[in-house]
Amino acid sequence: MNESMNIGQAAQATGVSAKMIRHYESVGLFPEARRTESGYRLYGEKELATLRFIRHSRDLGFSLEQIRALLDLWQNRRRPSRQVKALAQEHLDEIDKKLRELQAMKSTLSHLVHCCAGDDRPDCPIIDSLADAPHARQ
Hints:
two-stranded antiparallel ribbon, 2 strands, mainly alpha, about 5% strand
């Protein structure tokens, strides 16, 4: 591997698009890269490792703020692992809540689809339910 890579090479090596690398730099999640005299970004192994860490964290659904905290913990070799576990447990609890919400939506929609004849008549329990939803009333 070369000592340094440009943004396109870094994107290919890490699976993080060049656009997202620039975004992570702009929001302060990822430090701005060193630049050549002509202004091209340069990335070394440390930056590539950080981008991979960010990508893996995003793949698990962590928010940018959670990733910021995880990066701080990752870079602090003296951190207690309980802090990492607590952050991950909080995220896991959020995922469980979303799964319950999705399961409830699926159940309701499945029931409505089952109740709809899906024929040429205009009567439709799906439309009736959507029109009668409490949040739709004014």
